[in-house]
Structures are given as structure tokens and as C-alpha cells.
Amino acid sequence: MNKRIKAIDICACTVLLMSLCTVLLLCACGSNESNVLKFEKLKVEKEVALAAGKDAPSCKVLLEVNYANGGNAETDKEVNETLQHHLFDMQGLTMQQAADSFATQYVRDYKGTLTALYERDRNDASKKAWYEYHYTIDTRTQSGREGVVNYFIDIDYHEGGAHGIRQLLVLNFDEQSGHQLTLSDVFVPGYETRLKELLQEKLMEIADVTTQDELKAKDYLYSMDMFPSENFILNDDEITFIYNPYEIAPYEKGMTEISVTYSEVKDILVIK
Question: What pTM did the predictor assign?
């Protein structure tokens, strides 16, 4: 009888221990999950005509913005404050408030700046295109290097010039802290010279040239020097530097991407 009771006790203790371990494991998983960045998308649209009449030019604003929500509260706050600064040059608002405020101010400035000018030109149909404005932001995220979230910002705007402008901006976030990783977080102090030389070598390979004069002849670095851009993507195996039109080449060249592997810059890397 005593042996049977002891066996039952042992069995009960085993079940209790297994249950306790399961609970602890679930809690641990839940704790880790709360620190992983999660994103939701908000959308803001505004359109305003510059004058009465169906043929009047207009300004259209479309903002589709991913913002951190549902993870660790402090991490989400860190990310969203950074996003507000880069996207809207604002701070201290919710992301919805910042997007609404930006769109409202943009169309308000459009009318305030151009209404009187358009009244003077409205009978000249050839000038209507000068007054057609749009501003679009679209964002997306992806997993980058381990522990890093890449945040992509596609901006497309036209403000009456000869052509519109398209830009790609990239932010890299530590998914645990929400801290934006800059070049000074990735490379050791004094990295600039070594990295600049390597990027220029890579650019020469892209342009299929062997000298700086040949590079300039193809309109690269014609009136500026090479520089390590803060606009970069931390991928699994490499870092891709993004140069938008006019940064190292004219508009006609479009965006230039230069990639270097981690092994090529291991001597100046902080992250390993």
C-alpha cells in the first residue's frame, strides 16, 4: 500500500514539474515576443483643388506608413519617434496625428503659395502642369541582418518642376531596443577613409572604368567626392549603400546601389 502511495506521489510530482516547466517556457517565449518589433500601417489621403472648376489643378497627398505597434511599449516609442522625425520632421505626436498634420499642412501651403499665381496663369492651358502637385510616401519593412529590421521609405513627389523626384530612404532598427543603427554603430571610429576608398572602387566596377577621370566622364562624382551614405541596408551578408539622384550622379542616372560584404570591411566593423 505504501509503495503504491509513493508511486502515485512521484507521478503527481512529475506531472506538476512538467506543468511548471511548460508555464515557465511559455512565459519566457511571451517575454521575448513582446520585444520583437511589430508594425501596423496607417493611411492618410488628402486632395485639394487650386481653384473652382473641374479642370483646375490639384494637390494630392497619399501617406501609407508602417508604425511600430503591439511589441514592447518603450521599443515601439523609440521607433515611432525616429520615424516621425524622418518622415514628417515632427515629434511628440502619435503617428496618426503626425501624418494627418503633415498632409494638412502640405495642402495648406500649396494653396497659400500658388493660388494667386494660378489666377494669373489660369487662361494659359500650357501652364496647368506647373500647378499639379503630388506627394506620396509608401513604407515597408523586412528582416535584415540578425536582430535588425530594415525600414524602407519610398518617397515620390512632384512640385511643378520639369520632373518629379523619387527617393528611397532606409532606416535600420535594432529589434530589441528600437534604436536606429547609424554608421557610427556599425563601424569603428575613423572608418570613413577606408570605407570611402572601398565604395569608390565598387563604383568603378559598376561603371566599368579604371580611373577617376573615366568615372567623371560617365557623370559619376562629377562635382562631388565619394562619401559613405547614412542611407544603407544591413543585409544578412552585406551592406548596401543607397545613393539617390543628385547625390553622386545626375538625375538621369537614377538611384545607385553599392554593396560591400561584411568580410570586405571586417577590419573596421563593430558588429561581428
Answer: 0.85
